Every structure is written in C-alpha cells, then in structure tokens.
Amino acid sequence: MAQLHPQIPVGLTTTEAPFIEDAVAHGRLYIEQPYDLYSEENHEAWRRLYERITPRWHKYANEHFMRGIANLCLDPERVPKLEEVNQFLCPLTGFSAKAVSGYVPAFLFFDCLRNREFPTTITIRRSDKLDYLPEPDIFHDIAGHVPMHTDPAFADTLVRFGDCAHTAAEIVSRIGDEEEKVRRLKSIIKAMARFFWFTIEFGLMRSADGKELKVYGSGLLSSFGELEYCIESPEVQRFPIQLEWVINQYFEIDHYQPLLFIVDSFDHLFSLVGDLETWMKEGKLDNVSPGEPDISDADLKSFLEADPSLK
Prior knowledge:
Blueprint: H1 18-25, H2 40-60, H3 63-72, H4 82-93, E1 96-100, H5 106-114, E2 117-121, H6 138-145, H7 152-173, H8 178-201, E3 204-206, E4 213-215, H9 218-221, H10 224-232, E5 237-240, H11 243-246, E6 259-263, H12 266-281, H13 297-304
Parallel strand pairs: 1-2, 3-6, 5-6
Antiparallel strand pairs: 3-4
Helix pairs in contact: 2-10, 5-7, 7-8, 7-12
C-alpha cells in the first residue's frame, strides 16, 4: 500500500502541486512518483485526454507509435504508474521513464537520453483545460513520447542525440576565450534545440508504402487539435527535411506549427543526427541564424560544467 505524504495536500495538477513546489524548493530534480497524491480530477483528466485522442491516433499516428501504445498497456482510465510503464518499456529498448520535478537543463536532458532515461513530468493538466499547456505534463510525456521509445531505431536516435551533447561539451571545453566559448555554445545549443523540435517533437514521416504522411513527433501526438491540423490543414507547409534549413529555422511554442518537416524513416533520422554531430565538429553550427529558442543561463551552465572526459 502506498505511503501517504503527510502535510502535502492531494493533487498533482500542473502548476498547482505542492509536492512539486517542495521538491523544487529543496533542489530535488530527480524524484519518485508519489502516486497516492493523484486526485480523482487528475485521473479524470487523463481519462478524457486519452479517450478523445485515441481515434486520431488510429488515423494519423505512425505504425511504430501504434505498436508502442499497444506494447505499453497503458490504462485509459488512470494516470500511469511509471514503474509499470518501465516494466513494459525496458525489455524492449532499455529505455525507462525517470520522474523529474520540472525543467531539466539541456545537457542533463540529453545526457539522460544517452543513458536511455527519459526525464518525465509527473503532473497533469487541469481537467477543464485540456487543449493547451505551455509546459509538458505526464500525458505529453507518457502518451506522446514514451510509445516511440519502444522502437529500437527511434531509441537509438535519442541516444545519438545524447552523444551530440557530449561532443558539444568537449568542443567548447577547448575554447580558451570565455566570450567566444559562450557565443559558440549558444549557437550549438540553439541548433540542437531546433533539430529536436522539428523532429522528435513535431516530426512527420512517410508511411510504410510511401503514400501517406504520418505523425511521429510527440508534441503532435499528444495534442488532440494539432494532430489532425498538422496533416489536414492547407495552412501547414510540409517539406522533406533539410539539415541546413532546420538548424536555422526559429519556432514559437504558443500556437499550431505552420512549418513541419518530413523524414523517410527512423534510419534516416538517425543518420541526420550523425550529420548534425559532424557539422558540429566542422564548426557549421557556430553561427546559426538568430531567433527562438532563447538559450537560458541554466542550459549554458549545464554544458559549461559538463565533464568532457565522459565522452
């Protein structure tokens, strides 16, 4: 039987969870999932989110995602327990969902991926605000991201992203001038963030027969409205992915995406991450175009304090 947490009110609602506030206040980034704190409203939010999006998954999601949903055996009625998710996930690709209290600085995030751990938010949005949430929640992370982690080729691609982060830390550690080090690092992180956004979060791919576009990006797969919009709307521009375009393309998070990129397969995506690392070594990421996303001090610090010998 789960142990109750004294003096902490029940509920793990996004931006309204005292348990998370306490963890952040005490500097606890990696935490346990206190499952007994979920309220009935939290479970109702999960149920409604899962129920309404399932038909759109069947219509628009790629085949790897649909196999992943089946393999994870998620309960449509209740917020998932991460330990149960991991029991199904780990044997397939070695990945596991790792509970966190909030934002994970960039290097630490990519390093988790390198170690086949996915930083996972444990709060869930309010049941009366299901459509848009600027920050991730457990539905986005578990129902959007984690099914893709059951696919070996996709999982290897995430690990490759982690390798890129270590390469970046190693490169900037050799730069003596501090101002130049920060300038180049900001550009490299911006390039990596844009690539991650337009692939892992908002990527499209060809169907197995090449005749249709399907969704593999988790930001799309966890959004009831945008999942349909990204495929059906004439307002969306969809182009075959080009590395030089993606790393120089800014994005905004507070509206449906007007521009999306298409990969042929996860083997294609894996090779593109390899190209990204090669370009990084050749200095081609040192001067990407300005614009979103902004690179926070925490992201910079996470790379500057990384130990390049871990490469």
